[in-house]
# Entry
Amino acid sequence: NRKLVGRKIVNIRYMTSEEAKGYGYEKRPLVIFLDNGEGIWAQKDDEGNDAGALMTTWKEMMFGTLDSEDA
# Structure
């Protein structure tokens, strides 16, 4: 996707409870922030019914979600 090519990752953190609540999520996903101010995260499905885990090509490596009350 042309919106991602050439972008740089500037920050990675879990969504705050307040941010997750704003999207109607019960879980908090890992968010990847880019140099243009945009963020990328996984959703449970195309309808945005909750946060989702990020899978990787690294052996046995996955970034799961946190419960909304977890700090």
Observations:
- Helices lie at 17-22.
- The beta strands are 9-14, 27-28, 30-34, 39-40, 54-55, 62-63, 66-67.
- DSSP finds one helix and seven strands in the chain.
